[in-house]
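Obj.: predict assembly geometry.
Materials: sequence records (below).
Method: joint structure prediction, all chains together.
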Amino acid sequence: MAKVPKPNELELEHGMPQTGWMDTPTIFRPGNFSYPGKAKNLKVVGLANPREWSPNDADWKLPADWKNILLEGLRERLDKYRTLKVYMDICVRCGACADKCHFYLGSGDPKNMPVLRAELLRSVYRKEFTLAGKIMGKMVGARDLTEDVVKEWFMYFFQCTECRRCSLFCPYGIDTAEFTIIGRELLNLIGCNIDWIAGPVANCYQTGNHLGIQPHAFKDMIDFFVDEIEAVNGIRIEPTFNRKGAEVLFVTPSGDVFADPGTYTLMGYLMLFHEIGLDYTWSTYASEGGNFGFFTSHEMMKRLNSKIYAEAKRLGVKYIIGGECGHMWRVINQYMDTVNGPADFLEVPKSSITGTTFHNAASTKMIHLVEFTADLIKNGKLKLDATRNDHLKVTYHDSCNTARGMGFLDEPRYVLNSVCNNFYEMPPNTIREQTFCCGSGSGLNNDEFMEMRMRGGLPRANAVRHVHEKFGVNALSCICAIDRAALPTLMNYWVPDVTVYGLHELVGNALVMEGETERTTDLRGEPLPGMEDSENEDI
Amino acid sequence: MGIKFSLAAVVGLILAAYIGVTGAGFYHFFGVTMPYLAIILFLGGVAYRVLNWGRSPVPFRIPTTAGQQKSLPWVKHAKYDNPSTKGQTFVRMALEVLLFRSLFRNTKFEAEEGHRLYYQQEKWLWLAALTFHYCFLVILLRHLRFFTLPVPSFVQGLDRLDGFFQVGLPGIYITDGLFVLAVTYLIIRRLVIPQVRYISLPQDYFPLFLLLAIATTGILTRYIYKVDLIKVKTLAMGLISFHPVVPAGIGTIFFIHFFLVCTLFAYFPFSKLMHAGGIFLSPTRNLPNDNRIRRHVNPWNYPVKVHTYAQYEDHFREKMVEAGLPVDKELEEAPSAPAE
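Observations (raw structure tokens):
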């Protein structure tokens, strides 16, 4: 594992190299790349060229006809995706995207400017698919596809989190995420992928979730949270699993089941559903809302996503609610109905508690838990005591996927303002549609990539530090499981006094439940404001 | 290298026209053949490019959402930054095409000691781009006076408006000045901003130098060398009525200007200038964000290998039964759990 430099040792320069980008070699060093996919994981889902290899090796053990595979793959995708085809041709290199990428801002590496990331692929396209490129070569920005180019692709398509901040500022809407998504798809054709994606994909395919939690263990873990909740407020919750005939199927990322602080968010879900008496079930088969297939290929995204509708159909539910997650919602909002629909066996979601019909999900039949909760609060169906979050000064991180792949901006803020009294926004250029990525999205949340993650997360941390210094913010809330896994590390590195919370954890703190015992602690067992003295009695 | 090459190319074009006309007397080639060739390449090229793009389907509806989605009735919807209907999308596109909405968001970063990052509004690129494009449009429209008889009133009006400031004779056009300023700014920023300079290719400098040369030669025809406009009109009307004649004594500077314009038209479809067409086909902008409301169909959607619930239950049945989880087939119905 790479030693991660301390913040004050981290060098950050935004000057340009002496050599042109085509002549600047790609150097793999500890901290700037992720470990390659293990053969056993690739085999589970039938991915190409399973083998043991390392990016540091001179020989990447590519298939003999790797070049042909890549070029044919590119040709096929140019014919299948208008995005790719148009975006190959229309960039004017105005540079508006250049300083919008968190990885460029945090690393200073020019190949992390979105325009250059796209040019890595465009240069090969020009050489192989345009007349000018064939004749004039480098003069028109064209170059041959060599093994060095493949290595460069591997480096920089796995140094992009597909967050689409660049696309927001591009005058033509060129979406670098499309280059990264399709670039990774191409790399997967010759077996160049990373294990932090390949592992979860294999797990999810076979076991139902990224973390490989088996059905009995999944139930055990949730039962553990049930005990935890009982310890906090004396309420015994009895969730059901794989239950046919439930009204609602609930799907959330397995990260919420597995690790803090997502687990507290999950406790919030359990409490909320219990309090309103929602007729819902968990599924151990569709126990993953997240979709690392999306970071592999469009096809793998479809294969993993298929479980959600399949399980909803098998259980005979009326509609689906999805928990707090970023890329899960990008997939649900932009792809699910197209790849695995139509969901004609489900009904248009209608909250049995408020009677509200969610017309905005008329076709997918899947709603976001936060819009469901916002509707509950708006209709006065929840008893909330926001003072229970008074020990927190909260800011809110928009996850890139829900912000720019959906436009899910005001619902979480509405809920947040209902469950806490101290809410402070970060500066306008760093939130809502202009939000900065956590730096660890799209499957890059691994330990060996830590230095780049801390660099990529700098713009986000920088904005948190601003409200921390200005308003004393000590809590960073979010609605994304990757954020909940990545941001604590990022905060610990750049702004150590800030703790990360899922939105429904704060809901769980504030929720006044029928028949609860006196609350003295929040869901983490921390004393509530004014209850500091009673801490000992509880234990 | 890219700068020198592009500059040399434009100078070469000017010399070619100069020598071709004054030295070789190729009046017919520069006055008739070139414009017809250019317009054929332009129209044919643009049509080919757009149709070729259009041949690739749009498998997924992936608009970049730049504001609040359509949600519950009481949540304020950002209709034009995150449209949910075709009408709203039309407005979004109009804002992009006519006002460069996305570029208007542009910011500039600054890094300070201690890993501190700051962002500020950066409207100069937007302003220069908008100025350049609109001036170009007005100048193109003004040139219609050479190709029409009688000259439509809106062209005359535009001419009067543009030449509002009567400085000397003939009057100065505002758009000429702004055009040169804007293009010069675009060249300078490309040279001065390190990031932009680093990403620039020869094909980024070439059109800028070409445009600057076109503007300069155009201005020269009007103010310095005073080309005979009646003769230019005769040439233009001849071209447009397919009875081309090249009147004698128009002046070399006109042929240089005309040749550069022809080059621009011929070059257009094979270059990044096609962004003008591409913006209309950009799926992150020209589609509503209504996937959850209306299903988007992917024409090449195909069945994939999935891990079914039945396979899953076969794999885990014993553990599920032991944990009290419901199963579709009891243990006795499915006696042995297969490995896969």
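Conclusions so far: Chain A touches chain B through 116 residues (CB under 8 Å).
To do: check interface contacts against the pulldown list.
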